[in-house]
Amino acid sequence: MTLFHSILKLLKNKKISDFPDESRHRFLLLNFILLVSGVTSLIFAVVHIFFFEQSFGYVLFTVFVISLILFVFFNISLNYKVYSTITILIFTVFFSLITLIGAGNKTGLIWGLAYPVMLAFTTKYRQYNIWSLFFLGINLGIFFIPNHFEFWSDYSSDIIMRYLFAYLLIYTLLEFYLRLKQQTISKQEKELIETKHHLLEKDKFISSLSYEIRTPLNNITGIINHQRESISEDAIDEIELSISNLALILNKIPKHTESNILHLTGEKTLFKLNEIIKKTISLFQTDKYTKLRFNLFLSSKLTEKVYGDRISFMQILISTIDFFFNRSNENPLKIDIVSQETENGTILIKVSCKIDNLIFPKNLSAENFINDIKDLEIINQISESLNVNFTIDKNTENFSTLFKFNFEDLPVETVSDKKDSNSVVVSEPYTHKKILLKDANVLLVEDDIINSKVMTLNIQKLVKKIIIAGNGKEALEKFSETKVDIILMDIRMPLMDGFKTTEKIREAEIGTGSRVPIIAVTANASSEVKKHCFEVGMNDYTTKPTNYKLLLKKMKKLLEG
Q: How high is the mean pLDDT of the chain?
Protein backbone atom coordinates (compact mmCIF):
# COMPACT_ATOMS: atom_id res chain seq x y z
CA MET A 1 0.00 0.00 0.00
CA THR A 2 1.43 3.40 -1.02
CA LEU A 3 1.93 6.28 1.39
CA PHE A 4 -0.87 8.23 -0.33
CA HIS A 5 -3.38 5.42 0.18
CA SER A 6 -2.31 5.06 3.80
CA ILE A 7 -2.95 8.76 4.45
CA LEU A 8 -6.26 8.62 2.58
CA LYS A 9 -7.39 5.67 4.69
CA LEU A 10 -6.51 7.61 7.84
CA LEU A 11 -8.48 10.67 6.70
CA LYS A 12 -11.58 8.77 5.64
CA ASN A 13 -14.55 8.57 7.96
CA LYS A 14 -17.19 5.91 7.37
CA LYS A 15 -19.92 8.40 8.25
CA ILE A 16 -19.13 10.68 5.30
CA SER A 17 -19.99 7.94 2.79
CA ASP A 18 -23.64 9.03 3.13
CA PHE A 19 -22.81 12.56 1.93
CA PRO A 20 -22.66 13.77 -1.70
CA ASP A 21 -19.28 13.69 -3.47
CA GLU A 22 -18.70 17.43 -3.12
CA SER A 23 -19.18 17.28 0.67
CA ARG A 24 -16.96 14.19 0.98
CA HIS A 25 -14.15 16.00 -0.83
CA ARG A 26 -14.43 19.02 1.47
CA PHE A 27 -14.36 16.77 4.55
CA LEU A 28 -11.23 14.98 3.31
CA LEU A 29 -9.45 18.26 2.55
CA LEU A 30 -10.22 19.74 5.97
CA ASN A 31 -9.02 16.53 7.63
CA PHE A 32 -5.85 16.74 5.54
CA ILE A 33 -5.24 20.39 6.52
CA LEU A 34 -5.74 19.63 10.22
CA LEU A 35 -3.51 16.56 10.06
CA VAL A 36 -0.67 18.28 8.17
CA SER A 37 -0.82 21.41 10.34
CA GLY A 38 -0.79 19.25 13.47
CA VAL A 39 2.20 17.15 12.38
CA THR A 40 4.11 20.22 11.14
CA SER A 41 3.44 22.12 14.39
CA LEU A 42 4.62 19.18 16.48
CA ILE A 43 7.87 18.82 14.52
CA PHE A 44 8.72 22.53 14.73
CA ALA A 45 7.63 22.66 18.37
CA VAL A 46 10.18 19.97 19.27
CA VAL A 47 12.90 21.72 17.24
CA HIS A 48 12.23 25.10 18.87
CA ILE A 49 12.01 23.72 22.41
CA PHE A 50 15.38 21.94 22.15
CA PHE A 51 17.36 24.22 19.82
CA PHE A 52 15.76 27.68 19.51
CA GLU A 53 13.13 29.74 21.37
CA GLN A 54 11.37 27.56 23.94
CA SER A 55 8.50 30.01 24.37
CA PHE A 56 7.64 29.88 20.68
CA GLY A 57 8.03 26.09 20.80
CA TYR A 58 5.28 25.95 23.40
CA VAL A 59 3.07 28.09 21.12
CA LEU A 60 3.66 25.61 18.29
CA PHE A 61 2.87 22.71 20.60
CA THR A 62 -0.39 24.46 21.54
CA VAL A 63 -1.24 24.67 17.84
CA PHE A 64 -0.56 20.94 17.55
CA VAL A 65 -2.95 20.18 20.44
CA ILE A 66 -5.65 22.44 19.00
CA SER A 67 -5.30 20.82 15.55
CA LEU A 68 -5.59 17.36 17.11
CA ILE A 69 -8.71 18.36 19.08
CA LEU A 70 -10.32 19.89 15.99
CA PHE A 71 -9.48 16.76 13.95
CA VAL A 72 -11.13 14.46 16.52
CA PHE A 73 -14.26 16.54 17.15
CA PHE A 74 -14.77 17.34 13.47
CA ASN A 75 -14.80 13.63 12.64
CA ILE A 76 -17.37 13.07 15.37
CA SER A 77 -19.78 15.88 14.43
CA LEU A 78 -18.95 16.33 10.71
CA ASN A 79 -20.07 19.96 11.00
CA TYR A 80 -17.92 21.33 8.18
CA LYS A 81 -19.06 24.95 8.37
CA VAL A 82 -18.28 25.35 12.07
CA TYR A 83 -14.93 23.55 12.11
CA SER A 84 -13.63 25.04 8.87
CA THR A 85 -14.38 28.53 10.26
CA ILE A 86 -12.65 27.72 13.56
CA THR A 87 -9.64 26.34 11.67
CA ILE A 88 -9.34 29.49 9.56
CA LEU A 89 -9.63 31.76 12.61
CA ILE A 90 -6.94 29.84 14.50
CA PHE A 91 -4.49 29.89 11.60
CA THR A 92 -5.22 33.54 10.88
CA VAL A 93 -4.22 34.35 14.47
CA PHE A 94 -1.23 31.95 14.35
CA PHE A 95 0.23 33.24 11.07
CA SER A 96 -0.35 36.84 12.16
CA LEU A 97 1.51 36.11 15.42
CA ILE A 98 4.45 34.63 13.51
CA THR A 99 4.63 37.75 11.32
CA LEU A 100 4.30 40.04 14.34
CA ILE A 101 7.07 38.55 16.48
CA GLY A 102 9.33 37.55 13.55
CA ALA A 103 9.77 33.95 14.68
CA GLY A 104 12.88 32.08 13.60
CA ASN A 105 15.00 35.19 13.31
CA LYS A 106 12.27 36.74 11.11
CA THR A 107 12.33 33.81 8.67
CA GLY A 108 8.95 32.72 10.06
CA LEU A 109 7.47 35.40 7.82
CA ILE A 110 7.66 32.86 5.00
CA TRP A 111 4.89 30.80 6.65
CA GLY A 112 2.45 33.56 5.78
CA LEU A 113 2.74 32.51 2.14
CA ALA A 114 1.09 29.20 3.02
CA TYR A 115 -2.03 31.01 4.28
CA PRO A 116 -3.79 31.50 0.91
CA VAL A 117 -2.95 27.90 -0.04
CA MET A 118 -4.66 26.63 3.11
CA LEU A 119 -7.66 28.85 2.39
CA ALA A 120 -7.97 27.54 -1.16
CA PHE A 121 -8.56 24.04 0.22
CA THR A 122 -10.89 24.94 3.09
CA THR A 123 -13.16 27.71 1.77
CA LYS A 124 -15.28 28.57 -1.21
CA TYR A 125 -14.33 31.15 -3.82
CA ARG A 126 -15.90 34.21 -2.18
CA GLN A 127 -14.66 33.38 1.33
CA TYR A 128 -11.19 32.75 -0.10
CA ASN A 129 -10.98 36.34 -1.40
CA ILE A 130 -12.34 37.85 1.83
CA TRP A 131 -10.00 35.97 4.17
CA SER A 132 -6.91 36.34 1.93
CA LEU A 133 -7.35 40.12 1.63
CA PHE A 134 -8.13 40.34 5.36
CA PHE A 135 -4.84 38.60 6.20
CA LEU A 136 -2.98 40.83 3.74
CA GLY A 137 -4.43 43.86 5.56
CA ILE A 138 -3.15 42.49 8.89
CA ASN A 139 0.34 42.08 7.38
CA LEU A 140 0.33 45.62 6.00
CA GLY A 141 -0.62 46.89 9.45
CA ILE A 142 2.25 44.97 11.05
CA PHE A 143 4.71 46.25 8.43
CA PHE A 144 3.78 49.93 8.34
CA ILE A 145 2.05 50.94 11.60
CA PRO A 146 4.60 52.76 13.82
CA ASN A 147 5.24 50.99 17.13
CA HIS A 148 7.60 50.95 20.09
CA PHE A 149 7.00 47.41 21.40
CA GLU A 150 9.96 45.10 21.83
CA PHE A 151 8.09 42.03 20.59
CA TRP A 152 6.98 43.88 17.41
CA SER A 153 9.43 42.93 14.64
CA ASP A 154 10.84 45.43 12.20
CA TYR A 155 11.38 44.22 8.64
CA SER A 156 13.56 45.79 6.02
CA SER A 157 11.94 47.31 2.94
CA ASP A 158 13.58 44.64 0.78
CA ILE A 159 12.04 41.76 2.80
CA ILE A 160 8.62 43.45 2.89
CA MET A 161 8.67 44.02 -0.87
CA ARG A 162 9.67 40.43 -1.63
CA TYR A 163 7.11 39.00 0.78
CA LEU A 164 4.22 41.12 -0.51
CA PHE A 165 5.10 40.33 -4.12
CA ALA A 166 5.23 36.57 -3.39
CA TYR A 167 1.97 36.70 -1.38
CA LEU A 168 0.09 38.59 -4.10
CA LEU A 169 1.46 36.26 -6.78
CA ILE A 170 0.30 33.14 -4.89
CA TYR A 171 -3.06 34.77 -4.07
CA THR A 172 -3.63 35.81 -7.71
CA LEU A 173 -2.72 32.40 -9.14
CA LEU A 174 -5.01 30.59 -6.70
CA GLU A 175 -7.80 33.15 -7.27
CA PHE A 176 -7.52 32.57 -11.03
CA TYR A 177 -7.57 28.80 -10.51
CA LEU A 178 -10.62 28.91 -8.21
CA ARG A 179 -12.47 31.19 -10.62
CA LEU A 180 -11.81 28.80 -13.53
CA LYS A 181 -12.86 25.87 -11.37
CA GLN A 182 -16.11 27.60 -10.41
CA GLN A 183 -16.87 28.49 -14.05
CA THR A 184 -16.13 24.92 -15.16
CA ILE A 185 -18.42 23.45 -12.51
CA SER A 186 -21.21 25.90 -13.42
CA LYS A 187 -20.81 25.11 -17.11
CA GLN A 188 -20.89 21.35 -16.49
CA GLU A 189 -23.92 21.74 -14.23
CA LYS A 190 -25.79 23.73 -16.87
CA GLU A 191 -24.86 21.23 -19.60
CA LEU A 192 -26.12 18.39 -17.39
CA ILE A 193 -29.42 20.17 -16.78
CA GLU A 194 -29.82 21.05 -20.47
CA THR A 195 -29.08 17.45 -21.46
CA LYS A 196 -31.73 16.19 -19.06
CA HIS A 197 -34.11 18.79 -20.42
CA HIS A 198 -33.53 17.66 -24.04
CA LEU A 199 -33.94 14.02 -23.07
CA LEU A 200 -37.17 14.88 -21.33
CA GLU A 201 -38.42 16.69 -24.44
CA LYS A 202 -37.61 13.67 -26.60
CA ASP A 203 -39.28 11.35 -24.10
CA LYS A 204 -42.36 13.57 -24.08
CA PHE A 205 -42.49 13.58 -27.88
CA ILE A 206 -42.23 9.78 -28.10
CA SER A 207 -44.87 9.27 -25.40
CA SER A 208 -47.15 11.79 -27.06
CA LEU A 209 -46.65 10.11 -30.44
CA SER A 210 -47.50 6.75 -28.90
CA TYR A 211 -50.65 8.24 -27.34
CA GLU A 212 -51.75 9.91 -30.58
CA ILE A 213 -51.37 6.64 -32.52
CA ARG A 214 -53.21 4.61 -29.89
CA THR A 215 -56.34 6.81 -30.02
CA PRO A 216 -57.28 6.19 -33.68
CA LEU A 217 -56.06 2.60 -33.37
CA ASN A 218 -58.52 2.12 -30.51
CA ASN A 219 -61.33 3.47 -32.68
CA ILE A 220 -60.48 1.09 -35.53
CA THR A 221 -60.46 -1.85 -33.14
CA GLY A 222 -63.81 -0.85 -31.65
CA ILE A 223 -65.48 -0.38 -35.03
CA ILE A 224 -64.20 -3.75 -36.30
CA ASN A 225 -65.41 -5.44 -33.11
CA HIS A 226 -68.87 -3.85 -33.50
CA GLN A 227 -69.14 -4.67 -37.25
CA ARG A 228 -67.68 -8.17 -36.93
CA GLU A 229 -70.73 -9.86 -38.40
CA SER A 230 -70.53 -7.86 -41.67
CA ILE A 231 -66.82 -8.49 -42.24
CA SER A 232 -65.38 -11.79 -43.43
CA GLU A 233 -63.46 -13.85 -40.90
CA ASP A 234 -60.30 -13.80 -43.04
CA ALA A 235 -60.37 -10.01 -43.24
CA ILE A 236 -60.99 -9.73 -39.50
CA ASP A 237 -58.06 -12.05 -38.76
CA GLU A 238 -55.72 -10.03 -40.99
CA ILE A 239 -56.85 -6.69 -39.53
CA GLU A 240 -56.65 -7.88 -35.93
CA LEU A 241 -53.22 -9.38 -36.55
CA SER A 242 -51.99 -6.07 -37.99
CA ILE A 243 -53.51 -4.13 -35.10
CA SER A 244 -51.94 -6.52 -32.57
CA ASN A 245 -48.50 -6.12 -34.18
CA LEU A 246 -48.81 -2.34 -34.17
CA ALA A 247 -50.01 -2.37 -30.56
CA LEU A 248 -47.03 -4.55 -29.61
CA ILE A 249 -44.66 -1.99 -31.14
CA LEU A 250 -46.39 0.83 -29.29
CA ASN A 251 -46.20 -1.06 -26.00
CA LYS A 252 -42.41 -1.25 -26.39
CA ILE A 253 -42.04 2.53 -26.64
CA PRO A 254 -42.81 3.41 -22.99
CA LYS A 255 -40.53 0.63 -21.77
CA HIS A 256 -37.60 2.51 -23.28
CA THR A 257 -38.77 5.94 -22.16
CA GLU A 258 -40.11 5.49 -18.64
CA SER A 259 -36.69 5.90 -17.05
CA ASN A 260 -35.89 8.23 -14.17
CA ILE A 261 -35.44 11.08 -16.63
CA LEU A 262 -39.03 12.04 -15.94
CA HIS A 263 -38.27 12.38 -12.24
CA LEU A 264 -35.04 14.37 -12.60
CA THR A 265 -34.22 13.85 -8.94
CA GLY A 266 -30.74 14.01 -7.51
CA GLU A 267 -29.19 13.92 -4.07
CA LYS A 268 -30.76 15.93 -1.26
CA THR A 269 -28.46 18.63 0.12
CA LEU A 270 -28.65 21.77 2.20
CA PHE A 271 -28.52 24.86 0.01
CA LYS A 272 -29.29 28.58 0.17
CA LEU A 273 -32.38 29.13 -1.94
CA ASN A 274 -31.82 32.76 -2.93
CA GLU A 275 -28.20 32.07 -3.87
CA ILE A 276 -29.26 29.15 -6.09
CA ILE A 277 -31.80 31.42 -7.82
CA LYS A 278 -29.03 33.93 -8.52
CA LYS A 279 -26.70 31.16 -9.67
CA THR A 280 -29.35 29.82 -12.04
CA ILE A 281 -29.82 33.28 -13.53
CA SER A 282 -26.05 33.59 -14.04
CA LEU A 283 -26.20 30.55 -16.32
CA PHE A 284 -28.14 32.69 -18.83
CA GLN A 285 -25.29 35.16 -19.22
CA THR A 286 -24.41 33.95 -22.71
CA ASP A 287 -24.65 35.45 -26.21
CA LYS A 288 -27.92 33.63 -26.84
CA TYR A 289 -29.65 35.39 -23.94
CA THR A 290 -28.24 38.91 -24.33
CA LYS A 291 -31.77 40.36 -24.64
CA LEU A 292 -32.91 38.70 -21.43
CA ARG A 293 -33.06 40.73 -18.20
CA PHE A 294 -34.10 39.76 -14.66
CA ASN A 295 -35.72 41.64 -11.80
CA LEU A 296 -35.23 39.83 -8.49
CA PHE A 297 -37.51 40.27 -5.49
CA LEU A 298 -36.01 37.73 -3.09
CA SER A 299 -37.27 37.69 0.47
CA SER A 300 -34.59 38.18 3.10
CA LYS A 301 -36.91 36.41 5.57
CA LEU A 302 -36.57 33.10 3.77
CA THR A 303 -35.08 30.19 5.71
CA GLU A 304 -31.33 30.57 5.31
CA LYS A 305 -30.98 27.03 4.08
CA VAL A 306 -33.42 24.50 2.72
CA TYR A 307 -33.01 20.77 2.34
CA GLY A 308 -33.84 19.39 -1.07
CA ASP A 309 -32.82 18.47 -4.60
CA ARG A 310 -30.84 21.51 -5.77
CA ILE A 311 -30.35 20.30 -9.35
CA SER A 312 -34.04 19.59 -9.86
CA PHE A 313 -34.97 22.99 -8.41
CA MET A 314 -32.59 24.62 -10.88
CA GLN A 315 -34.10 22.47 -13.64
CA ILE A 316 -37.56 23.87 -12.92
CA LEU A 317 -36.27 27.45 -12.99
CA ILE A 318 -34.23 26.93 -16.17
CA SER A 319 -37.15 25.26 -17.96
CA THR A 320 -39.50 28.08 -16.93
CA ILE A 321 -37.11 30.84 -18.00
CA ASP A 322 -36.49 29.01 -21.28
CA PHE A 323 -40.26 28.80 -21.82
CA PHE A 324 -40.66 32.57 -21.46
CA PHE A 325 -37.61 33.24 -23.61
CA ASN A 326 -38.82 30.96 -26.40
CA ARG A 327 -42.26 32.58 -26.32
CA SER A 328 -40.60 36.02 -26.73
CA ASN A 329 -39.06 34.97 -30.07
CA GLU A 330 -35.70 36.22 -28.73
CA ASN A 331 -36.98 39.80 -28.44
CA PRO A 332 -35.96 41.95 -25.43
CA LEU A 333 -37.59 40.45 -22.34
CA LYS A 334 -37.64 41.21 -18.62
CA ILE A 335 -38.52 38.40 -16.24
CA ASP A 336 -39.51 38.98 -12.60
CA ILE A 337 -38.59 36.32 -10.04
CA VAL A 338 -40.12 36.54 -6.57
CA SER A 339 -39.37 34.31 -3.58
CA GLN A 340 -41.24 34.30 -0.29
CA GLU A 341 -42.11 32.00 2.61
CA THR A 342 -45.64 31.49 3.94
CA GLU A 343 -46.56 31.13 7.62
CA ASN A 344 -46.83 27.35 7.31
CA GLY A 345 -43.30 27.08 5.88
CA THR A 346 -44.26 26.64 2.22
CA ILE A 347 -41.88 28.49 -0.11
CA LEU A 348 -43.38 30.27 -3.12
CA ILE A 349 -41.38 31.02 -6.27
CA LYS A 350 -43.12 33.19 -8.86
CA VAL A 351 -41.71 33.74 -12.35
CA SER A 352 -43.53 36.25 -14.55
CA CYS A 353 -43.21 38.73 -17.40
CA LYS A 354 -45.30 41.23 -19.34
CA ILE A 355 -47.91 39.39 -21.36
CA ASP A 356 -47.46 41.75 -24.31
CA ASN A 357 -43.90 40.47 -24.75
CA LEU A 358 -45.02 36.88 -25.38
CA ILE A 359 -46.02 35.26 -28.64
CA PHE A 360 -48.59 32.45 -28.45
CA PRO A 361 -48.78 29.64 -31.03
CA LYS A 362 -51.44 29.47 -33.74
CA ASN A 363 -52.83 32.89 -32.75
CA LEU A 364 -54.14 31.50 -29.48
CA SER A 365 -55.06 33.96 -26.77
CA ALA A 366 -53.26 33.75 -23.44
CA GLU A 367 -56.41 32.38 -21.78
CA ASN A 368 -56.84 29.59 -24.35
CA PHE A 369 -53.16 28.86 -24.07
CA ILE A 370 -53.48 28.37 -20.32
CA ASN A 371 -56.34 25.90 -20.86
CA ASP A 372 -54.20 23.90 -23.28
CA ILE A 373 -50.73 23.98 -21.72
CA LYS A 374 -48.94 21.49 -23.97
CA ASP A 375 -45.98 23.88 -24.17
CA LEU A 376 -45.73 23.70 -20.37
CA GLU A 377 -46.04 19.92 -20.10
CA ILE A 378 -42.32 19.45 -19.42
CA ILE A 379 -42.36 21.93 -16.54
CA ASN A 380 -45.55 20.32 -15.28
CA GLN A 381 -43.99 16.84 -15.39
CA ILE A 382 -40.89 17.98 -13.51
CA SER A 383 -43.10 19.65 -10.89
CA GLU A 384 -45.28 16.56 -10.49
CA SER A 385 -42.26 14.28 -10.16
CA LEU A 386 -41.03 16.47 -7.27
CA ASN A 387 -44.50 16.88 -5.74
CA VAL A 388 -44.32 20.63 -6.40
CA ASN A 389 -47.61 22.49 -6.84
CA PHE A 390 -47.31 24.25 -10.22
CA THR A 391 -49.90 26.75 -11.46
CA ILE A 392 -50.06 29.37 -14.20
CA ASP A 393 -51.96 32.61 -14.20
CA LYS A 394 -52.45 35.64 -16.37
CA ASN A 395 -54.01 39.05 -15.94
CA THR A 396 -54.23 42.01 -18.25
CA GLU A 397 -50.52 42.72 -17.84
CA ASN A 398 -48.60 39.65 -16.70
CA PHE A 399 -48.21 35.98 -17.50
CA SER A 400 -47.02 34.12 -14.39
CA THR A 401 -45.93 30.69 -13.24
CA LEU A 402 -46.15 29.90 -9.52
CA PHE A 403 -44.38 27.05 -7.73
CA LYS A 404 -45.13 25.95 -4.17
CA PHE A 405 -42.31 23.97 -2.56
CA ASN A 406 -42.19 22.01 0.67
CA PHE A 407 -38.47 21.42 0.61
CA GLU A 408 -38.37 19.07 3.56
CA ASP A 409 -40.31 16.62 1.35
CA LEU A 410 -38.21 17.20 -1.81
CA PRO A 411 -37.51 14.99 -3.65
CA VAL A 412 -40.35 12.52 -3.11
CA GLU A 413 -38.89 9.06 -3.55
CA THR A 414 -42.21 7.39 -4.34
CA VAL A 415 -45.71 8.75 -4.67
CA SER A 416 -47.00 6.28 -2.13
CA ASP A 417 -44.56 7.54 0.50
CA LYS A 418 -46.18 10.98 0.58
CA LYS A 419 -49.62 11.57 2.09
CA ASP A 420 -50.90 15.13 1.88
CA SER A 421 -54.28 16.62 2.65
CA ASN A 422 -55.65 15.44 -0.68
CA SER A 423 -54.42 11.87 -0.36
CA VAL A 424 -56.92 9.04 -0.31
CA VAL A 425 -56.67 6.41 2.40
CA VAL A 426 -56.76 3.41 0.11
CA SER A 427 -56.80 0.96 2.96
CA GLU A 428 -60.17 2.23 4.26
CA PRO A 429 -62.58 -0.74 4.54
CA TYR A 430 -65.41 -0.58 2.07
CA THR A 431 -68.15 -2.69 0.59
CA HIS A 432 -69.84 -2.71 -2.76
CA LYS A 433 -73.24 -4.05 -3.63
CA LYS A 434 -72.99 -6.90 -6.11
CA ILE A 435 -74.87 -6.34 -9.34
CA LEU A 436 -75.13 -8.16 -12.64
CA LEU A 437 -73.32 -6.61 -15.60
CA LYS A 438 -76.56 -6.40 -17.59
CA ASP A 439 -78.19 -4.35 -14.79
CA ALA A 440 -75.28 -1.93 -14.33
CA ASN A 441 -75.22 1.83 -14.94
CA VAL A 442 -71.82 2.63 -16.48
CA LEU A 443 -70.23 6.09 -16.29
CA LEU A 444 -67.96 6.44 -19.33
CA VAL A 445 -65.46 9.28 -18.88
CA GLU A 446 -63.83 10.00 -22.26
CA ASP A 447 -62.91 13.34 -23.87
CA ASP A 448 -62.57 11.97 -27.43
CA ILE A 449 -66.02 11.90 -29.05
CA ILE A 450 -65.14 9.12 -31.52
CA ASN A 451 -63.64 7.00 -28.74
CA SER A 452 -66.76 7.54 -26.68
CA LYS A 453 -69.06 6.48 -29.53
CA VAL A 454 -66.98 3.39 -30.36
CA MET A 455 -66.89 2.23 -26.72
CA THR A 456 -70.64 2.83 -26.41
CA LEU A 457 -71.30 0.74 -29.52
CA ASN A 458 -69.30 -2.16 -28.10
CA ILE A 459 -70.76 -2.35 -24.59
CA GLN A 460 -74.23 -0.76 -24.71
CA LYS A 461 -76.03 -4.04 -25.44
CA LEU A 462 -74.38 -5.73 -22.45
CA VAL A 463 -75.19 -3.16 -19.76
CA LYS A 464 -78.32 -1.37 -18.57
CA LYS A 465 -77.26 2.24 -19.21
CA ILE A 466 -74.23 4.24 -20.31
CA ILE A 467 -73.75 7.76 -18.92
CA ILE A 468 -71.17 9.77 -20.86
CA ALA A 469 -68.92 12.51 -19.42
CA GLY A 470 -66.52 14.49 -21.63
CA ASN A 471 -64.03 15.46 -18.89
CA GLY A 472 -63.26 15.05 -15.20
CA LYS A 473 -65.41 17.92 -13.94
CA GLU A 474 -68.40 16.68 -15.90
CA ALA A 475 -67.78 13.18 -14.52
CA LEU A 476 -67.96 14.49 -10.94
CA GLU A 477 -71.29 16.15 -11.70
CA LYS A 478 -72.74 12.99 -13.29
CA PHE A 479 -71.40 10.89 -10.39
CA SER A 480 -73.18 13.07 -7.82
CA GLU A 481 -76.45 13.32 -9.78
CA THR A 482 -76.88 9.75 -11.09
CA LYS A 483 -76.70 6.24 -9.69
CA VAL A 484 -73.45 4.80 -11.00
CA ASP A 485 -72.38 1.15 -10.60
CA ILE A 486 -69.01 1.23 -12.38
CA ILE A 487 -66.77 3.88 -14.02
CA LEU A 488 -64.59 3.58 -17.12
CA MET A 489 -62.04 6.38 -16.69
CA ASP A 490 -59.81 7.95 -19.33
CA ILE A 491 -56.58 9.47 -17.99
CA ARG A 492 -55.54 12.32 -20.25
CA MET A 493 -58.37 14.86 -20.34
CA PRO A 494 -58.72 18.67 -20.27
CA LEU A 495 -59.80 20.62 -17.15
CA MET A 496 -59.25 17.62 -14.83
CA ASP A 497 -57.39 14.41 -15.63
CA GLY A 498 -58.43 10.90 -14.65
CA PHE A 499 -56.09 10.75 -11.64
CA LYS A 500 -57.50 13.90 -10.05
CA THR A 501 -61.07 12.88 -10.89
CA THR A 502 -60.57 9.51 -9.19
CA GLU A 503 -59.11 11.21 -6.09
CA LYS A 504 -62.15 13.51 -5.90
CA ILE A 505 -64.55 10.56 -6.23
CA ARG A 506 -62.73 8.62 -3.51
CA GLU A 507 -62.83 11.66 -1.23
CA ALA A 508 -66.59 11.93 -1.76
CA GLU A 509 -66.98 8.27 -0.77
CA ILE A 510 -65.12 8.59 2.53
CA GLY A 511 -67.51 7.77 5.36
CA THR A 512 -70.09 6.13 3.08
CA GLY A 513 -68.67 2.63 3.53
CA SER A 514 -68.89 1.90 -0.21
CA ARG A 515 -66.83 2.51 -3.32
CA VAL A 516 -67.74 2.41 -6.99
CA PRO A 517 -65.32 0.28 -9.05
CA ILE A 518 -63.16 2.35 -11.43
CA ILE A 519 -61.29 0.92 -14.42
CA ALA A 520 -58.67 3.06 -16.17
CA VAL A 521 -58.95 2.93 -19.97
CA THR A 522 -55.91 4.79 -21.31
CA ALA A 523 -53.58 5.01 -24.29
CA ASN A 524 -50.60 5.46 -21.96
CA ALA A 525 -49.14 2.00 -21.43
CA SER A 526 -46.24 2.87 -19.12
CA SER A 527 -45.79 1.07 -15.80
CA GLU A 528 -45.56 4.45 -14.03
CA VAL A 529 -49.09 5.37 -15.17
CA LYS A 530 -50.38 1.94 -14.23
CA LYS A 531 -48.82 2.23 -10.78
CA HIS A 532 -50.29 5.69 -10.27
CA CYS A 533 -53.76 4.45 -11.27
CA PHE A 534 -53.80 2.06 -8.31
CA GLU A 535 -52.24 4.64 -5.98
CA VAL A 536 -55.08 7.13 -6.51
CA GLY A 537 -57.71 4.46 -5.90
CA MET A 538 -58.60 2.81 -9.20
CA ASN A 539 -59.50 -0.88 -9.15
CA ASP A 540 -58.18 -2.04 -12.52
CA TYR A 541 -56.40 -0.89 -15.62
CA THR A 542 -56.57 -1.59 -19.36
CA THR A 543 -54.88 0.01 -22.35
CA LYS A 544 -56.00 1.23 -25.74
CA PRO A 545 -56.55 -0.25 -28.31
CA THR A 546 -59.24 -1.71 -26.08
CA ASN A 547 -59.64 -5.46 -25.86
CA TYR A 548 -63.41 -5.43 -25.26
CA LYS A 549 -63.57 -9.07 -24.23
CA LEU A 550 -61.00 -8.42 -21.55
CA LEU A 551 -62.64 -5.12 -20.53
CA LEU A 552 -66.06 -6.74 -20.12
CA LYS A 553 -64.46 -9.58 -18.16
CA LYS A 554 -62.88 -7.04 -15.76
CA MET A 555 -66.18 -5.17 -15.44
CA LYS A 556 -68.09 -8.37 -14.69
CA LYS A 557 -65.54 -9.46 -12.09
CA LEU A 558 -65.70 -6.11 -10.26
CA LEU A 559 -69.49 -5.91 -10.40
CA GLU A 560 -70.50 -9.48 -9.73
CA GLY A 561 -67.57 -10.36 -7.48
A: 76
